[in-house]
Write a structure and sequence with these properties.
41% of the residues lie in helices and 21% in strands. It is α/β, with parallel strands linked by helices and 282 residues long.
Length: 282
């Protein structure tokens, strides 16, 4: 199965050279890390970090995303990136895993680790192999060029969550941990999420602050509670809950928010903004 780009030319350029230049500008932007990191080597089995990154158009969230990708590049690439996203399209099931084939972007193709994907499905009570859930979903696709810019030597397991609650995040966390132990393969989770949507800047900063504190505390239970209690329109809290859970199971018990911003910081319109953040668990 070849998964063709759905948002090339919209969320990011469809011309490879333009795309590379935009990625570079994301890193060098005032809201970015300020430099282009160099890829380190990594050959162990226990990858030291998992990350959280946003998934909006690069002009809005790419600079914030550069902080998360800088951490990955500095640590070197594992064998597999498990990229977990929310489901914006409504297609597919509670946990839909793209378990064979390749994903295409303007920077080339990325192979799916079918063995790892199937092992997660086998260990899960909820997840299923599902291609349709991924056909139009943007929040995994936009992560790939950031990785491809630095290397073509990696595989992915794309996972989108149609339902985000304790049951699905716990099941997925268990399944990832069991599959990784079975296969003895190095992996990094990339939790793809934006934060609150369409509040004014002041309110966005306030409610995003609640979830960012929970993420730094690595408290997925309080994160879920506050998303519900305050009706925080964070679209990928399920992927973040899963990343936190897996991290703690693997002895990674420190969370750190690397960068935060909103679309209003880019556009100047502070009346209706979307929040973005990068974070690392190690």
């Amino acid at each position: 199965m070849l998964r063709q780009p759905a948002v090339a030319g919209a969320f990011y350029p469809d011309n490879p050279e333009d795309l590379k230049r935009l990625i570079e500008s994301c890193f060098s932007d005032d809201s970015g890390v300020g430099f282009m990191p160099e890829l380190s080597s990594f050959e162990a089995k226990d990858y030291p970090i998992h990350v959280m990154v946003p998934h909006a158009g690069y002009q809005y969230s790419g600079a914030i995303a550069s902080h998360g990708y800088c951490e990955i590049v500095k640590n070197g690439f594992p064998e597999v990136f498990i990229i977990i996203s929310p489901n914006h399209t409504g297609l597919g099931g509670e946990i839909s895993i793209f378990n064979e084939g390749e994903w295409i972007t303007p920077l080339g193709s990325v192979e799916v680790d079918g063995e790892f994907a199937d092992a997660i499905i086998d260990s899960s009570d909820i997840a299923s192999a599902d291609f349709m859930a991924h056909i139009r979903e943007h929040s995994i696709e936009v992560q790939l060029p950031f990785l491809q810019y630095f290397s073509q030597d990696f595989k992915i397991v794309p996972v989108t969550m149609g339902r985000q609650n304790f049951a699905t995040s716990t099941d997925l966390s268990n399944a990832i941990t069991e599959a990784a132990e079975k296969l003895n393969r190095s992996y990094c989770i990339i939790a793809s999420t934006d934060l609150s949507h369409f509040n004014n800047q002041e309110k966005a900063n306030k409610v995003d602050g609640f979830v960012l504190e929970d993420i730094e505390d690595m408290n997925e239970f309080k994160l879920f509670e506050e998303v519900v209690q305050y009706n925080i329109t964070m679209c990928g809290y399920g992927p973040v809950m899963t990343a936190i859970s897996v991290s703690k199971r693997c002895g990674k018990d420190t969370g750190r928010i690397l960068a935060y911003g909103t679309s209003g910081d880019v556009t100047g319109d502070l009346t209706s903004v979307v929040g973005y953040a990068s974070g690392v668990f190690k």
